[in-house]
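Deliverable D4.2, example record:
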Amino acid sequence: MNIIPDLSARSNLNPPPWIHFAFLLLVLAAPLSVSAGGRTIIQLKDFDQTEVKAGGFVLPHDTQVHIHARGAGDEKRWKKGDGEMFAYGWIINAGTRELVWKMDRDNTRREKEDRVFDDDVAFKKGSYEVYFAAYAFSANSPFTSFTINIDRRKDSHPIDGVKKRGIFSWFQELMGHHDIEKEFKKRSKEWVIELAVDEHDADVTMFSPPKEFPNTLFHATRVGEKEHIRQYFSLSRPVSLRIYALGETPEGGDPVDYGWIVDVKTHKRIWEMEGSNLTNAGGAEKNVKFDGVVAFPAGEYILYYTTDDSHSYTDWNAAPPADPFNYGVTLIARDDQAQTGFKLTTPKQEQNVIVQLTMLGNSETRNACFSLKAPARVHVYAIGERANFRRQMADYGWIINANTREKVWTMEVDNTEPAGGASKNRMVDEVISLPKGTYTVYYQTDDSHAYNDWNSAPPFDPEHWGITVYGEGENFNMHNVEKGINPKTAGTIAQIVRVEDDARMSQTFALEKPTRIRIYAIGEGQNNEMFDYGYIEAGSTGKIIWQMTYSMTFHAGGGRKNRMVNTSILLDKGEYRLHYVSDDSHSFNHWNTDPPDDPTMWGITLYKEE
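Output generated by the structure prediction step:
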């Protein structure tokens, strides 16, 4: 009788159709003798197209199990005191998920290029899962030896008579012969693990791994590459949950496949997979595991799990963990209170949001304006990226007074704290006081490491990459806030802004009486010369009566050539023309270095001074 592989769904995370990790249980009706008088209960074989196969069995009493297994390793490296098996079997306790037996160099003997285990192993009463993995292959030349990952997603078979460059192509060229693929196919079909029990042990039963944890609340397992999982849940009472999570942490580095949990209300991390709480998960050294109990207050939470672009359930580029089908994260109730107090939820609308500029991609700048009808305390929550030279931010936000154009808050390195993931991820979570007035919130990113395009580990709250301004406190009155307003305010006499390359723009205005005006202009200049600048000329004579010169400007934020002037002059009654000119580079939305702090005001604005 053949039991068909179970390829069931995994919490909405289905494996790609081209991958076949079989849970293959060959339970033979006619005894296949592995030892005299034995009955084969599980046979896992033929690893040409499949990387990992598994089977489960239940022993109703302590039992001697005969194991016959054929695998392989790099024999040349072993002679040098290095190397490991790349095709081998192992067995874990299905209840504890702990390793109880494994093929290795010491318990196998060499037969030609393979290694063989053939012996009885004593098992206690219980449930077990047997696995066999063939994740790599080695080949030798007179000069060297290599072990290569076998990524079965990369087709090396002829299609329409044309052979694609596949997983063996470069390897064959390097090693100087073209029989490596043929050798792998031949040997991988012979790799096998067979388990047999005494023919009188008819009460031994089988199942398809992995055995589910009792009282599982949620699981995201069999996780592949570049997956980003987010699941909301609520707890109606304080609860302690068991968290079982497998991931990857390269030697000496930060985790790259890992999970964490965030409190929705406070944005604080309640739990995370990090070096001090992880243990080795079996297989390669970089396989890590968290298996512990975490106490949670009542509240709303988000569970995250993220993976990088390699070494996952879809393809292991090193030895897989001992529990490969549980790669990911599982939440488990420890008692009835946890079972009844836990609920999977969907995102709720955030409260008292004044401005939200989030999930920004690379090379993006956004802004939004709001007015406060009364002084208010506001909560600023921002996540961004610290620049490589560590004293500046690369992705960051700031707030300016929309009338005076003065900066009232900025995300500086010194007022940030770690945001989780890569060390360059930084966050601000603080409350500030703002007077009555109109404000513009900005956020800008550089050309790398932004939402959904991370070049290092993402932060713990990736959806808030950007800046959010909330009214502080549950009693905050949103009626005192006007959102989405036009930043052009009363008192503006003339304005030319958002100026792009090669512009020659002008606007006329008239004054009915002598008037003191405030000039606010941003442009480009360096080496005592201006390239993007404004000026005012008298309407009747065309004479220039004011011009933006380098000596009157100061740094406008961003690149050093961003220059700003904010000054007042007195103009007589009469007609005037306001001008702004730009050269062929570095202008609004065409920046060739970092934009200024007030990018939408690139140009010139005249205000009536109160």
